[in-house]
Amino acid sequence: MRVSDIMATNPQSVAPGEFVTHAREIMREYNYDSLPVVDNGRVAGMITLQDIINVTSTRSDVTVSGYVRADVPRLTPDTGLPRAAFIVIRTDEGRVPVVDPDSRLVGLLSVKDIFKGLPELELEDRPVSEYMTRKVVVCQPEDSLSRVWLNMIHYGLTGFPVVGDRMEVIGMVTREDITKRGYARIERESEGKKNPTTVQKIMSTPAITVEENDSIRKAAKIFMERNIGRVPVVMNGKLTGIVDRYDVIRACRALQGVTPR
């Protein structure tokens, strides 16, 4: 399997001269972490929501050109799946542009796209505890959505477990939850408002979880069947970590020995 078999085609992009506020609107509307920047038909780099979140709506004349990440990796349509997966999980932009020999944008590849070829990557049958992240950013039901949204962007995460006072997992809240329900237009200026919208209003309950001793294959199955990207890990009813799509890809035998070049 090659990149051309699984990549997203006809991707949205922005030009260096377009306003940052426009790029941010696109990312919020489609729940993107990043967008390719195309200059005169060729890929100039990527711009991320994390980089531009602090550009307030009052600075409407700021352009994309000052925020382009020019040194991002590129893939070609004929790149093999193992090498493509190796590159994607090591990027900070969430997606990698796919280009033709003239550096023209022909597609984008994300970790979600990689899952289409997961059987070919030979996923190990090992416990979740070997791959999960133990330091977890969480929120509580009474937290304001504006603060949670900004924290998600700050940490580059797509969702947080919602926990109680004893670290029991009671739900999940994601960026997609926020955007789908019309709360995406949350600015830093909104903080401090009286009666802010709280997490408990939109969080998903009950939470889908896995145990530390469960196989990483169980987590992968949940991601594919539920179309979600992160699952809290629990032990004795309390949160002990989190596992995501990137962890699953890292657990694949086919990536062993692969190099970026």
TrEMBL record:
Pfam families: CBS. InterPro entries: CBS_dom, CBS_dom_sf, Diverse_CBS-Domain. One of its GO terms (biological process) is methionine biosynthetic process. The keyword Nuclease does not apply. Keywords: Amino-acid biosynthesis, CBS domain, Methionine biosynthesis. The keyword 4Fe-4S does not apply. Residues 7-62, 67-126, 132-190, 203-261 form the CBS domain. It comes from Methanocella paludicola (strain DSM 17711 / JCM 13418 / NBRC 101707 / SANAE). This is CBS domain-containing protein.
